[in-house]
Amino acid sequence: MKLSPTRRPSAIRTLVAATLCALAAPVVYAAAPPAAPAPAINPQVEQAVGALRAITTLQADFIQTDRNGQRLTGVLSMQRPGKIRFQYQPGIPLLIVSDGAALTLIDYEVRQVQRWPIRNSPLGALLDPNKDVARFATINPTGHADVISIDVRDPRHPEYGSITMIMLRKPSAPGGWELNSWVALDSQNRRTTVRLTNQRYGVALPSNIFRWNDPRGAGRK
After folding, report:
1. pLDDT of residue 2
2. How far lies 42's CA from each of 36, 47, 48, 138, 218, in Å?
3. Enclosing domain of residue 93
4. How many domains does the chain have?
5. CA atoms of 159 and 122, how far apart (whole Å)
6. CATH number of the domain that 150 lies in?
């Protein structure tokens, strides 16, 4: 079910808000207690994490789908460390952007702004080089040597949600692996899938692309 870009039903706002809740679910990547021995890291996890950290800038088209099959499209722009922008299709008055410190949902129709620390978001697995992602990542068997499915969650706190990333082998991508899609699951089991196409790496992004206009009035940010 694809929502019309010319309509602004509450379902669209609910879909985007649920996406942000999933992306901003407080997944914790804290280090293990000092007394605990460090577990061996799967080589595929190291490959996946290395490929993600090799990205400098990325721009791609995306399709966002919720668990009911409702879809929105748009353009994703990412710059490591910490910056990302989900620019939705024409007619959708919503924007998700991170300036490196906070993940922000801007609703221009009702003039509302919501913010969450990026360090507590599953997107930190993509954006924050200081996240010890490998310690909390597990490999999901795919049966295909050219596909990696990596699940990132804190096993001590399953209520915090998770992010599962799918990566495909691609020699021309940074680190030899391309981020194809991810599934974010929040503490209420709200599932959101984001699939990427037409990935472009190392692109020059405008300096203001990770900024946003505050709809609440002058002097607010």
Report:
1. 46
2. 18, 9, 10, 8, 50
3. 10-28+41-201
4. 1
5. 13
6. 2.50.20.10
In a domain, 185, yes or no: yes
Report pLDDT digits (tens) over 24-72: 444 333 344 444 455 567 888 888 888 888 889 999 999 999 888 889 9
Averaged pLDDT for residues 106-131? 73
Checking if the pLDDT of 200 tops 90, the result is yes
Mean pLDDT of 7-18: 51
Judge whether residue 11 has pLDDT over 80: no
Assigned domain for 108 exists: yes
Q: Are 179 and 198 in contact (CB under 8 A)?
A: no
Query: Is 67 part of a structural domain of the chain?
Result: yes
CB of 18 within 8 A of CB of 192? yes
CB distance 153 to 162 below 8 Å: yes
Question: Closest by alpha carbon to 167, among 176, 184, 150, 179?
Answer: 179
Residue 66, domain member (yes or no) = yes
| Gap between the Cα atoms of 16 and 165, Å rounded | 19
